[in-house]
Amino acid sequence: MFVRIKTTPNSPRKSVQIVQSIRASDGKVKQKIIRHVGIAMNDKELERLKDLAEFIKAEMETETQPYMYPPEEMAKMAIECRKKKEDDKPIHVNLKKLREEKRIVLGIHEVYGKIYEEIGFDRIITNPKRNTSSANILKDIVLSRLANSVSKRESVSLLERDFGISLPLEKVYRMMDKLDNKAIANMQDIAYKKTCGLFKDKINVLFYDCTTLYFESFTEDELKQNGYSKDMKFNQPQVLLALLATEEGLPIGYEVFPGATFEGHTLVKILKQLKLRYELNNIIFVADRGMLSNDNLNLLEAEGFNYIVGARIRNMAKQIQEAILNESNYQVCKEEGNRTAVFEQSKSRSLIVHYSQDRARKDQHDRKKAIDKLLKKMSKNSTDPKALLNNYGYKKYLTVEGTARLKVNEEKIQQDAKWDGLHGVISNLKDIPIANILQQYRSLWQIEECFRVNKHDLKIRPIYHWTPDRIKAHIAIVFAAFVCAKHLAYRVGLQYKDLSIEAIRKELIHVQLCFLKHQETGKRYCVPSNVSYDAQKIYQVMGIKLSTTPFELK
What we know:
Elements: E1 2-7, E2 14-23, E3 29-40, H1 43-62, H2 73-83, E4 98-105, H3 107-119, H4 128-147, H5 152-163, H6 169-177, H7 181-198, E5 205-214, E6 238-246, E7 251-258, H8 267-278, E8 284-287, H9 294-302, E9 306-311, H10 318-325, E10 331-332, E11 339-344, E12 350-355, H11 357-380, H12 410-417, E13 422-427, H13 434-442, H14 445-457, H15 468-495, H16 501-509, E14 512-518, E15 524-528, H17 533-541, E16 551-553
Helix pairs in contact: 3-4, 3-15, 4-5, 4-6, 4-15, 7-15
């Protein structure tokens, strides 16, 4: 088996295929296409498809047994029947004697189940002889979250109703207790190695950011603590989640911190983890301005990391602010209306400030919107200054004595307008074009997208578990689901077209199988649902045969 690149005459199209040499009956060796991976239109796409083809080929060569559906016998038999070669013989049956017995969803377990095993998450819980049941339960719970992000209790009901899997809730909790620190570290190592496998160890940019996850509780402990909440839940305890991802948005690791931890103080532990566990070299570390501190920059340099970190340009020394606002310090970029300035901060690092007309228009629009809202409030509450205060309920403790006259400070508005369109980053990269540095920082939206998927699609919060171990196990389950979702979305985007994680979920949810039972003979028949073209392509990407031909369940 090998990867073949097939060119198209007079066209930039190049097909990436996995082929196998087979000796025909006449003794000649012919090449048979095992998997069509995709079509590249340029060198970058070709390189990514070749890496993906090598990854798929390695998985196919090491695969020891076909994918099996989880425990329920009827569903397992149906899956196996779908794999067999279609029988063209007609099925003679009296339709009036058939009654629907059950309807199950196959798409999630067939496609995400294969991704789950290809990544290697079936090895998260070690000692497989003793923990086979827990490993299977973990897989079902992860796949259940990909199908519908609900509580563990509701997941158990969903698995039985929609997937034909009967799972006691107490066994789910026992499985979570086996997701200890060792299992979680093992899971992150597996995720990292599989991501590296997609790029042949060519990961050279890492994005890093933090978010908060709140609880439906008001009780604090050593992990659940009140702190600065990015969800505006300041009166509820939380934990801080730090996430690492590649420039393609594929996650490689995370860390959970007590809720009161300042995100800028998380960097020390993360860097030690990177050095000890992953042995990364020549990595560009990209983070938002929440990571900006002199101590953190010194730490990054001491550990040998290149970095691009957002800068708080309005909080800098007055002399630097004056230099930033001085237009003569800027050079015009190729893009019309955009310009940059570089200010050396030390021998190793520079402050790069970029002006964008699009950003300036946005800043101006946001300020005008805020002022209009303020003026509207002032017109309605001209005699009550407390009505303009927004401090989450504490304004009831304030008393305004005497008369107060409020007015908008036009001078401050003009001062604020001087910063429209300006944004800064600090970097120690010296031999890379400024445009590339800025582009890498703009790609930080990938980590924001990761948090959006975790919070909204996979509903990682609110968290309903109370003990630190159960909380960490819950986050580990969601992380495993997130890795599966991102890996599948990446492969679908590369081999077919960009589909969101939610769009893929909806397509797979509609790949179903209807079980019909004959009232007299007791025979069962299966009728697959009609599937969309997108669902067919998702199956094709994963190399799974998708048949819509009815068959008898034997």
